[in-house]
Write a structure and sequence with these properties.
Chain lengths: 498, 102
Amino acid sequence: MTVETLVPFEEALTRYDPVMGLEIHIELNTATKMFCGCPTEFGAEPNTQVCPVCLALPGALPVVNAKAVESAIRMGLALNCEIAQWCRFARKNYFYPDMPKNFQTSQYDEPIAFDGYVDVEVDGETFRIEIERAHMEEDTGKALHVGGSTGRIHGADFSLVDYNRAGIPLIEIVTRTIEVPPEKAPAVARAYVSHVRDLIGGLGVSDVRMDQGSLRADVNLSLKPKGSTTLGTRSETKNVNSFRSVERAVRFEISRHAGILDAGGRVVQETRHFQEDTGTTLSGREKSDADDYRYFPEPDLAPVSPSREWVEELRATLPEPPAVRRARLQADWGFSDLDMRDTIGAGALDLIVATVEAGTTPQAAKKWWLGEMARRANESGHDLDALGITPQQVAEIQGLIDAKRINDKLARSVFDGVIAGEGTPEEVVVSRKLEVVSDDGALGAAVDRAIEGDPDAAAKIRAGNLGVAGALIGAVMKEMRGQADAGRVRELILEKLS
Amino acid sequence: MSEPVTGISREDVVHLAGLARIDLSDAELDHLATELPAILEHVASVQEAAGDDVPAMSHPVPVDNVFREDVVRPSLAPADALAAAPASDQQRFLVPKILGEG
């Protein structure tokens, strides 16, 4: 493997402009697969959700799932696309055992949706991302590579394939080339994926979970020298499993391409795999003859020609557009523009919506998701929705605080426990013995001891200098190991010293 | 889709054989390099019959929108699903190593 020289991101941008293209694959949440009646449960035992159609046994005949077509049209409409009057499926031929048919049923030059756009926001600025197409296809099986030392495809002796996922309806959304102010490129890429996640999630047609693979992003990137209009050779980075990784992948590829071009080299057109741990990309396979897919119309499936009436019916089912929804939520919640920008930037909008729906005030929901949760997400490299804590659990913890059974500090320990899988917030409070002491007798005794231990402070408070009460509150909280309601402690101290 | 193929060279046959993972001898390549163009030429007469006003067909009869409801049907038992596989392990299809052919 050749060692590549990386050019720092900021420096690379002084000489090159990045050109991006993003592909997002979204698994639909239909009950059955795209072309057969097999179920689509995530995490089922291997090869328990397969049949003659998705295993490509001889004589099996696929039939299109009506619900998947409906979902595809609704997605196309939400992406402001035109919906095809008539379109077909096509066979994408390749040899790789993730599809037992030796082809993937997809769409080629006749996608169901095309020529759309979405407007995404970065730091309060709006960028229009044009959608070239959104087409229907099917997901592939999962291969487990056995042998070798790494568990990766390179060096494996053989592979074990589970076809449960093969045939699950997939929609691929392809952007046109994206050219934005160079320094904004990584953030725009991230914002786009996040925006599409929210948009499609709002339609209810997919779980849109990046961590479970129901939303997967590929980042295509090339550089062109400043002032040039000639596009460079692009790389296609796959395996980008979080919003944060989308941003990092763009930054890394800009640095890598710049290093190659600076040295007078040529960028190789290839698939690259993003490495979550290092934030780098590794070469997958070079694009070659193997990518001559010999598409041709699928003879086993009838064309799809959605009537205009059906399309308009489906348009009427779309939720309010994102910009309208955001304005409404901002007004409902009383958030400032900055609050809203932070919320959207963190990908926390829907999490806060769900937390508020579960009974928490918007301010408290914002405090947890943009504070404690954002900090944890940042430290662990996860997106907020992959932390292992749900909006309902956050709401439950806030409920415990409101009921004065725990305080903010103890809540952090409850979060630890819930994320560690120790049970519900209630169970964690009990098992970790986190409940604050609300028994005035026990608290009163601790307050008495604190007053005895610091007569100077006590005297000052008696003389009306309430500013030193903090010292005594601190002493009590220390004795109670944090398990007291600081507000109540303050009240008790002031009562006793009045 | 792609433009109609007007001619097929020996190199094209080598390329196609590679894509289809078919190992052809030199004699077979020579043979196919003359036979495939002849077949295409023969079929090309269809294109003469159909004018520009006749759209390309992918199906012999006009039929659109053949759908099924999104209702689960029983899958195969894993043992049956794997029954025809040359090899299996851990209830999965065992396939030869995927990379390594260049």
